[in-house]
Amino acid sequence: MKIGIVCYPTFGGSGVLATELGMALSEKGHEVHFITYQQPVRLHFHPNVYYHEVSVPAYPLFDFAPYETVLTGTMVDVITNNNLDILHVHYAIPHASAAYFAMQILKKTGKDIPFITTLHGTDITLVGRDPKYMPVVTFSMNESSAITAVSENLRQETFKFFKVEKEIHVITNFVDTHRFQHSDKEHFKKMLAPNRERILAHVSNFRKVKRVEDVIRVFEKVRKVIPSKLLMIGDGPERPNAEELCRNIDLCDDIRFLGKQEQVDEILSITDLFILPSEYESFGLAALEAMACGVPVISTNTGGLPEINVPGVTGYLSDVGDIDSMAEGALKILENDKTLHQFKERALKHTKNFERAKIVPLYENLYIKVIEEYRQNK
Fold it and tell me: What is the distance between the alpha carbons of residues 40 and 223, in angstroms, rounded to a whole number?
């Protein structure tokens, strides 16, 4: 198949999943065309992968460049000149509406194709509910040839808040266990924790919804009982506040802000515990990638997190904002080497349910079904 993928190219979960999916499809022999405004962070060379940049020209009339219009035009160009079979857009805003617009243009030439919309979270639970966006999001979802969601929770949330008139297929996020696996980085660990301190970590885009200050508060409580270090991976608007909190509670020597990192798997390989105290996670891909490296997880019980983090098995769940409960769970896991090892083993074993080899065929089968139905109905 010739597949177009539209996504955000950043470190967020939707862009990561879209890129990983496209790379996996290319390795299976499909021709994959990425359409976005810059090269996705996890995209690397493969003979079956093509990248098409959405280049928005500056024009003095506009305070904000009309990205959706240029995206639509780029979709039309890529579909026409590469004879794509299907378009897969990740994150509803504005990709689904742009895809619909592109198909209306292409219908005039007889080159329209089906498009699938994958919902990832805040496009539905936060941004999409804004009254200014909701009519467009609802319309474009219903005009999609198929809709998928990355968790059962997100599927239910979508039906709850939007008048969706068709089925939503749940195809969970997946993890590439060939990349995300424990590797021997003991020399790094000795440098960061010379006295065998426990190492805790957090990975996110540091938005408010991630509640990064809760990570630090949990760490503060853990460190009072067990010698520990904290690695904060990623960047975003809440990083300055988090750094200021570290200074105010005098923990800067034990907390490192590493910024955006390409080789997150190497950092996770020296980590003992992953903390994800988000206000909402449609799935929690960062937690799954940590588990694949043998790292147990302390997370909130919101959104799709209970679908991947099993209490007492892979880690513990707590209510949003309950840092006392999170710290208590962390201490249960970290209190002795035997308990920690058991949690690490169970976390790793649990990720086998979300391996790339199990999930990617679900998308392939959906593509085939949608393409066949679309061609029959034309």
Answer: 37
In this predicted structure, what is the pLDDT of residue 11? 66
Other C-beta atoms closer than 10 Å to the C-beta of 337 total: 10
373 and 335 inside one domain: no
Q: What mean pLDDT is predicted for residues 345-351?
A: 96
State residue 108's pLDDT score: 94
Q: 340 with 360, same domain?
A: no
Do 6 and 87 touch, CB atoms closer than 8 A? Answer: yes
- Return left, alpha or beta for 35; rule: phi > 0 is left, psi -120 to 50 is alpha, else beta: beta
* CA pair distance 169, 362, nearest whole angstrom: 10
Distance (Å, whole) CA 341 – CA 334: 9
Domain of 328, CATH number, reads 3.40.50.2000
The model's pTM is: 0.90
Cα–Cα distance measured from residue 233 to residue 124, given in angstroms and rounded to the nearest whole number: 26
Show the domain range for 204.
186-353
Residue 29's identity, in one-letter code, is: G
Instruction: Give 328's pLDDT tier (boundaries 50, 70, 90).
Output: very high
- At 26 the three-state DSSP class reads helix
Number of domains observed in the structure of the chain: 2
Cβ atoms of 154 and 304 closer than 8 Å: yes
Q: What are phi and psi of 49, to 5 degrees?
A: -110, 135
Q: Are 356 and 363 in contact (CB under 8 A)?
A: no
Rounded distance, CA 35 to CA 50, Å?
Answer: 9
Say which residues have a Cβ less than 8 Å from residue 171's Cβ, sequence separation at least 6: 118, 148, 149, 150, 359, 362, 363, 366
